[in-house]
Amino acid sequence: MLCNPPSTHPSAGFGLIELLVTMSIMTLVSTIVLVNQGTFNNAIVLRNQTYEIAFMLRQAQLVAVSGTDNRVGDGQRFGVQINRSQNSVTLFSDTNNSGTYNAGDTVLDSRRLDSRFEIDAVSIGSTNNVAILHVIFERPNFDAQLRDGGTLRTGVAEIVVSSRNGGTSRVIQVTNSGNISVISN
């Protein structure tokens, strides 16, 4: 009598249940990654927006201290205007030495924030709800002159940039001594 010899190969491949469990895990991980991708992208763009503003502030400071810029004359004051209502930032040369951005000043750079973000709040020291902030730098000092419209203020200026959908925000701080920093809020 002939018998089937015992199999030397264990059964190969995946069973149906193993395949379904693996596919369920992959679907769950993919869903989590896709849901969080938008949040991650917004956080990166928010970070870039705040660093662009901080860079414009630093650029005004460095151009003022160096005393020259090939687009304008020597020895002028340079500044940045933060306009909450227009959601814009303007780097300018204060050609008429008014301490604020005026029609006669030379615009070196001007930007509006991405529509997903806004300049949520601006304050200088104890003065809140500042509509237009002027940060002026004048040679030879690194010090910043902080103006609420045309009024000179002392303290720390804080510019809060936040996501319009109520997400995270970042704060740019400018001190009278000229320190410029970006912090998470």
Provide structural commentary:
The protein is α+β, with helices and mostly antiparallel strands. The protein has a single domain, classed as minor pseudopilin epsh fold (3-Layer(bab) Sandwich), CATH 3.55.40. The chain is built from one helix and ten strands. It has a six-stranded antiparallel sheet with strand order 3-2-1-5-6-7, covered by helices on one side. The protein has a four-stranded antiparallel sheet with strand order 4-8-9-10, with helices on one face. The termini are far apart.
Question: Keyphrases for this structure?
Answer:
6-stranded antiparallel β-sheet; rod-shaped; 4-stranded antiparallel β-sheet; 28% helix; 185 residues; alpha+beta; minor pseudopilin epsh fold
Give the integer mean of the pLDDT values.
85
End-to-end distance, in Å?
A: 83 Å
CATH class call: Alpha Beta
Order of helices and strands: HEEEEEEEEEE
The structural domain count equals: 1
Widest sheet, order of strands: 3-2-1-5-6-7
Bin the helical content: 25-40%
Helix/strand-derived class?
alpha+beta
Q: What fraction of the residues are assigned to beta strands by DSSP?
A: 25-35%
CATH superfamily: minor pseudopilin epsh domain
Number of helices: 1
CATH architecture: 3-Layer(bab) Sandwich
The CATH topology comes to: minor pseudopilin epsh fold
Q: How many DSSP-defined strands?
A: 10
Q: Describe the biggest sheet?
A: 6 strands, antiparallel
Poorly predicted parts: none
**From the structure provided, what is the oligomeric state, counting identical versus distinct chains?**
single chain
